[in-house]
Amino acid sequence: MEYEIEFHPVGDASKAGDAISLRYWDGTNHQIIIVDGGTDTAGEVLVEHIRLHYGADTHISHVINTHPDTDHACGLRAVLKNFSVGTLWLHGVWHHAEEMLPYFSDPRWTVGGLEKAIRKNYGVISELLDLAAEKNIPVYEPFQGTQIGPLTVLSPSRWSYLRLVPQFRKTPAANTNALEADNMLLQSGGIASWIARALAGAMSWITEDWSIELLKENPVTAAENETSTVLFGRFGDARILLTGDAGANALSWSIQFASNQGLPIFQPTLMQVPHHGSRSNVSPSVLNELLGPPQTEGSPARGVAVVSAPKDDTTHPRNMVMNAFLRRGYPVNKTQGAYYRQFSAGYPRRTNEVAAQPFEWFHQVENYD
User: Fold this and answer.
1) How do residues 287-333 score in pLDDT, each as one tens digit?
2) d(C-alpha 334, C-alpha 332), whole Å
3) Residue 150, phi then psi, degrees to nearest 5
4) Which of 337, 285, 330 is nearest to 309 (CA)?
5) What are the phi and psi torsion angles at 159 (to 5°)?
6) Is residue 195 scored above 50 in pLDDT?
7) Cα separation, 187 vs 218, whole angstroms
8) Which residue from 153, 156, 353, 360 has the highest number of Cβ atoms inside 10 Å of its Cβ?
9) Domains: count for the chain
10) What CATH number has the domain bearing residue 200?
């Protein structure tokens, strides 16, 4: 099956993001899917890339926004403005306000008031929806089990999404009792505590060798990240797993759903490293379920991974996360500073393509304890 998937550099310094273009042959036509658009600048570069390599009058079958963070959503405005688009897939954060009312702490909220209060804090998502309406682009929500062309949505489920939105950083205060009753309250304070230690200069470096893994269990990431749309696609023999900023919870939900549906996501050909290589999104046990247990040093690779991170980012990706992937047979390629095509079959190579170089083993990793 002819396909190509490209990971485009986004941002600079510590301002990372995702922008992915996917092209494949469905037996009759070339189809284009865009997964996230990065920042405004990245979106403009993505538009030029599409024009140059796919054609000025390209029709994009599907545009997918994995979650509402601006480093993933902003650039999609340029895509919608410049091309005809078949469908837009995103979660309108204020949608389903009526069902979410019990999960907000203030009992005085009305449905209309809650919708308005949330929508004003998600201007980019609001703009994307307005652009879609202006151009008559149908909008759908990418909930678990949805099929988007050759891609299957593994997470989030509708049930979990409605309970995560009240825990977003930009939504009103959550009803923690209701969330605890549903076993959906994320560990409070985890992120704030981690950031405080980092800002206080508590980070040091510690030696890690192949046989001793320092990546910890039970990582905590933002609720927004746990709503990231996780996508799995099969292209001939290639199996691709795109994770956005998904956290350990979202990855676990994805694993369970795939198992129930008989989807072969174990040891994918290509896996996107979640959240630009943050240590708050993956754990040894989750990686074991996805990629297999650690190998002996020098074993053949099982697959390949790719991480989106700017060339001068000093905080992403984390060394211990890169080691964790490599230990399980997944050398990690980076988008840092160069455009490149990660995977392809049947499409010609590009004359301006820059080969990616995987990270080598890091003998020193970050330590915040």
Assistant:
1) 999 999 999 999 999 999 999 887 777 777 999 999 999 999 999 99
2) 7
3) -85, 0
4) 337
5) -60, -50
6) no
7) 9
8) 156
9) 1
10) 3.60.15.10
- Please state, in angstroms and rounded to a whole number, the distance separating the CA atoms of residues 64 and 320: 30
Rounded to whole angstroms, how far apart are CA atoms 183 and 163?
Answer: 10
Of 361, 355, 236, whose CA–CA distance to 298 is shortest? 361
Integer Cα distance of 155 and 145 in angstroms:
8
CA atoms within a 13 Å half-sphere pointing along the CA-CB vector of 136: 0
Q: Which residues pair with 241 in a beta bridge?
A: 232, 271
Range(s) of the domain holding residue 89: 3-367
Q: What is the pTM of this model?
A: 0.94
Phi, psi for 219 (deg, rounded to 5)? -70, 155
Q: How far apart are CA 220 and CA 281, in angstroms?
A: 7
| Mean pLDDT over each residue of the chain, to the nearest integer | 91
Q: Does the pLDDT of residue 114 top 90, yes or no?
A: yes
Q: Pull the structure tokens for residue 274.
A: 């979640």
Per-residue pLDDT reduced to its tens digit, 158-182 = 999 999 999 999 999 999 999 999 9
SS (H, E, C) the chain: CCEEEEECCCCCCCCCCCEEEEEEECCCCEEEEEEEECCHHHHHHHHHHHHHHHCCCCEEEEEECCCCCHHHHCCHHHHHHHCEEEEEECCCCCCCHHHHHHHECCCCCCHHHHHHHHHCCCHHHHHHHHHHHHCCCCEECCCCCCEECCEEEEECCHHHHHHHHHHCCCCCCECHHHHHHCCCCCCCCHHHHHHHHHHCCCCEEEECCCCCCCCCCCCCCCHHHHCCCEEEEEECCEEEEECCCCCHHHHHHHHHHHHHHCCCCCCCCEEECHHHHCCCCCCHHHHHHHHCCCCCCCCCCCCEEEECCCCCCCCCCCHHHHHHHHHCCCCEEECCCCCEEEEEECCCCCCCCCCCCECCCCCEEEECC
